[in-house]
Design a protein that fits this description.
816 residues; 6-stranded mixed beta sheet; 33 strands; alpha/beta; 19% strand
Amino acid sequence: MKHKIIKTARVSLLTALVLSNLSFNTVTDDINEPPLITIKGFTFKDFNKNGKLDPWEDTRLSVNTRIDAIIKEMTNAEKAELLIGTGMPGIEVLTGPIGDSKKGLVPGAAGGTAAFERFGIPATVVADGPAGLRIQPTRDNDTKTYYATAFPVGTALASTWNKALLEEVGKAMGNEVKEYGVDVLLAPALNIHRNPLNGRNFEYYSEDPLISGKTAAAIVNGIQSQGVGTSIKHFAVNNEETNRLTINAHVSERAIRELYLKGFEITVKESQPWTVMSSYNKLNGEYTSARKDLLTEVLRNEWGFKGIVMTDWFGGFPGFESIRDGSNSEVVKQMIAGNDLLMPGIPVQKKALLEALNSGKLSQEVANTNTKRILEYIFRTPTFAKYKYSDKPNLTKNAEVTRNAAAEGIVLLKNTNSALPFADKQKEVAVFGVTSYAWITGGTGSGSVNNKHTVSLLEGLNAAGYKLDKELVDLYKPYADKEVLAEKERRKEKGVMALPERLPELKLDDAFIAKKAASSEIAFVTLGRNSGEFNDRVVDNDFNLATEELEMLDKISTAFHAKGKKVVVILNIGGVIETASWKDKADAILLAWQPGQEGGHSVADVVSGKINPSGKLTMTFPVKYADTPSAKNFPGIPVDNPKEVTYEEGVYVGYRYFSTFNIKPSYEFGYGNSYTTFDYSNVKVNAPVFKDKLTVSVTVKNTGKTSGKEVVQVYLAAPSKSIDKPKEELKAFGKTKELKPEESQTLTFALSPKDLASFLENKSAWIAEAGTYKVLVGASSLNIKQTAEFTVANEITVEKVKKAFELDNKFTELKP
């Protein structure tokens, strides 16, 4: 949604003409409404009640002209008020008393901007988050409910590799944002999966910036098509939760530009989000919210971003203790850097900003620029347009959207001898694992949603008509309820920053399991993991399975296999776990992720064969944690209380590392099975020599007996004379339509000069080397079906940029 600005004559001249030639007829409307001014058939609101038509009240004028008139009239105090958020009710639990927090218009929203009655500027509302709108579901003295839909988490959505579907998810999210009276959804989140232990990886999409950027762009386009805004986050290099407000990340400019900014660049250019949220962390010694090279040079000047930049909540403060102690963020530096809005906003910041404006420490030019951008945002909002929201979004339709999206994001990791689909509704099914009954919708923290109900695996299988072993259900159900209650109490006791813990498994003896193996046709075993904001995950009993989980799997596998029965493991997880040591115990493994509120239905749809799984991994599953390239540099040093972290692995993150250094993963990037098979043929490039662009085409045929979709991945192996390069990099992808058996589809992909280029720090430029490039088209990073080649005759300087992100600490980067 591009914002049109019409150039008009200067405000003073135009105002003079309006006032000298037209007569007034002032009428008073409702007591709470401003008086009306009627001028020759046109009616305007007299917001400041001065009896004359001010330029900002004249709706015939361009938005630009009206905004300029407001800024000219604003006092320093009003500017400071607008540039600082209005606070967040309830945040005192973390910060201690910090002064007034204005009660938000929508209970449970994360904050907003200030109102200015005399200019007709309303307060606007921003709310979390990436898996759907997060507001309070019930309100004082109100019998109505305000539940929102819990959509699949980021890892699940990205695993669909389906941009059209993701846009539909965005539209459903946007519907709820708008109908509940919110202006901006603080989402999507698209930080790179640098390390599998990041506690918020479930919110993020991938280890690869192309997937991250394309996924986010599709969701932003969907949300913003509903007339509300988004805030893409966390910009940038926010790849861990440990000491997130203070951690200093040392990263090379090449790695920053090629990996950690690339997804944001794609999203900005392809969807123009209304806002960008700067991250907490320091980057090469300086808070990102105070980095002009990041927020102005790169984001605005290089990429053309037109919206506002807001801080993450308390961004630039060195920890919550510092807020309690009365210290401040560097408000002047943040403003000069191009950070327009400081969130959630506290009195100490407003006071400092006003003093800086009054003393000239912060120039009027900077303040006016930032103020103008915020006013441009406000003028776009539904609140400004006085949209009468219903408080009744289409929850029924949105539940259907989330059910379909979750099913398409499910990844079939293993399926020996066609263990799935299992469609027999007559034979008894044994459902093991506490998580089958205490299903995990999504992660915790600001990425969670207050939904009305979550469909567990138990409910999903029941609704699909499966005959479940009643004795097992009667044993597990009360046990799961008890453990969920205990976990809730534990978290309540530990406070808002408590990390969710794995629920302990129910102990079953060998004889009991053997009895179930005799009476049941198949075993479903769910393994669950949860994580959230404020803390990172750990290796033992989280990334690695707990001893009791391995014992449970072992016993069930032994007993059921002894009777010639199948065992299916369902992973209800948000991020990567270790799979190599136990995957042989299962006949099939279904990665369901944390699939949102309809998750049990989605899994049942795939288990029964109603839906053929077509999800593929957007990250690598290593054989062991130590194989992760950042393992020895996460979360940082000193180990007991990290202050800094060095990205020594450079651009070799995820499959870029595993492929280049020939490290065998448990499941590679891009991997995912289907109930059918596909054949790739006729890979072609449209020219042997690259000029301005090049197209790659491939024909995919369904060679199996079941309808299904296939994700086609296009990797590029580039020459590496002037700089080291990963063995292959994803440059394009697409998903076929639902192909019937024997049906084919030809997909075509475009490669631009930038797709060929790497960032050379010594030239401050994106350079595509001369030489031979290999196109690898396949079903995963390790399953390349066909290849083609083209050449670049002469080196191409694709884009020259200003040098940025100077290192504060020299280090040696990993090279092949």
